Amino acid sequence: MQEFGNEEYAKLVKRLAPSSPVVKDCAKAFVSGGMICALGQALLEFWKAVGLAGKDAATAVSVTLIFVGALLTGIGVFDRIAKHAGAGTLVPITGFANSVAAPALEFKTEGFVAGTAVKMFTIAGPVIVFGLAASVVYGIVLAIIGAI
Predict the structure, then answer these.
(1) Residue 12 falls within a domain, yes or no?
(2) Prediction pTM value
(3) Is residue 3 part of a domain?
(4) Along the chain (148 residues), what's the average pLDDT of each consecutive run of 10 residues?
């Protein structure tokens, strides 16, 4: 077996790795992410037209986008969209929904508790835990500041 130094290995990787069309990928991500954001804005206007107040309409948009992202993941459409859209599908809320739903689907054969319920938070779990911990700390800090 041939041993490589760092320089030789870097040259080999550069020679064998496929080139990436960076500008094209960035353009696709920009357009697809913009379309998701435009959908979010359209949903916000819809929920306001239905009669929800501003904050309630914004919450309804988040819930709707999470539901749609999880649904599209569940029926296998999200991955096909992501294949073409690239990083544009990582717009935080739809990407979050996909990151929760995809591992759950992958491990559903292991059963509901040991598979789906446990693996659902494999990727998103640390984000949820950090968000909850940070919100508790912020709440305590605000309570202390308000008490002074």
Answers:
(1) no
(2) 0.65
(3) no
(4) 76 82 90 92 96 93 91 88 85 78 66 57 66 85 84
